[in-house]
Specification:
By secondary structure, this protein is an alpha/beta fold. 27% of the residues lie in helices and 22% in strands. It has a six-stranded parallel β-sheet, sandwiched between helices. Bound molecules: NADP nicotinamide-adenine-dinucleotide phosphate. The site of NADP nicotinamide-adenine-dinucleotide phosphate has 26 residues, from helix 1 and helix 12. NADP nicotinamide-adenine-dinucleotide phosphate binds next to helix 1 and helix 12.
Amino acid sequence: MSQKLKVGILGATGMVGQRFISLLENHPWFEVVTVAASPRSEGKRYEDVVKDRWKMDTPIPEGVKDLIIYNVNDVEKVASTVDFVFSAVDMTKDEIKAIEEAYAKTETPVVSNNSAHRWTKDVPMVVPEINPEHFDVIESQKKRLGTTRGFIAVKPNCSIQSYAPALTAWMEFEPYEVVATTYQAISGAGKTFKDWPEMNGNIIPYIGGEEEKSEQEPLRLWGKVEDGEIKKADCTVITTQCIRVPILNGHTAAAFVKFRKKPTKEQLIEKLVNFKGLPQELELPSAPKQFIQYLSDDNRPQVQLDVNYENGMGVSIGRLREDSVYDYKFVGLSHNTVRGAAGGAVLCAELLKAKGFIQPK
Ligand SMILES: NC(=O)c1ccc[n+]([C@@H]2O[C@H](COP(=O)([O-])OP(=O)(O)OC[C@H]3O[C@@H](n4cnc5c(N)ncnc54)[C@H](OP(=O)(O)O)[C@@H]3O)[C@@H](O)[C@H]2O)c1
């Protein structure tokens, strides 16, 4: 039997890091061998550091409890223990840019959850069902970095995963104007109600930097690889409002769309439920069998009922109907720390392995 690839988690003690560790327990291809966090956690046992702030529903995996935490900044030391790393650290953008490049330069692929490199021209930002061909820019990136196997790949922001997949499924009808309001869970800020009690019964109409990401990142997903760079698309104008709501997990979006070629409602539903991509064709371990489900009941999707659809890797759409100002409106829901963060990155890594970009060192 072939050996599993050895994985390190940068930011392993945080909300997204914990999600990586949970999702990778018993993963058929990847094994967490190294955990890294800030200098505050360096040298301590993983369980000792996270036991009072473990935020997952399942217990800390046995295989990780006794690992001694490395300092993320000890790049050579961490890199020497692994085949590739997942990155979910809370540092400044410039620090993250620098440290992720430093890892790549040690010939260690970095699959990142952070936003720092999402607009670096030769760094692919991928939802595997939507734009797997963007991984082709990795060859140009490696030339720039002077590496043979080291590179950075990223996944997009959690907020767009509740509406961008539906818009992608409808691309042939040419959606050209979109208004979306997102209702975002507190885990998106790395928090639970225990550490953010002010969110009980509250709504905060501001999430720093989120609206720009929500408006621009879908255009990058729909962009093309040209001359070794990703050129973003300009087919659609998107405007958003992003609002923090008292929900633990699950980002909901209410969206309005105008199409150049207005379809019927039946055509739109047919495109949603039949939308699939390489993860489904290749039967990747974390791929949802059905990427997008359509729920016809008027009171769906609901966070409590639908956030864990396809183990949190699927997207739920409902309330699709004609609108008097726009052509159609709908509501979407996705799990922000699974599909929107760690799960989306694990699926990227599975596709990168399947395509030969990540191999044992
Ligand atoms: N939560 C989400 O749904 C979500 C979704 C998409 C993207 N993101 C992004 O993912 C990243 C992590 O988010 P999170 O919610 O997991 O944050 P978090 O819970 O605050 O965790 C932050 C992690 O970074 C480490 N860290 C903090 N300061 C550091 C430093 N100076 N040097 C090295 N490591 C440091 C922490 O280690 P210690 O425990 O030692 O302090 C911890 O492991 C952020 O960039 C965030 O914007 C989050």
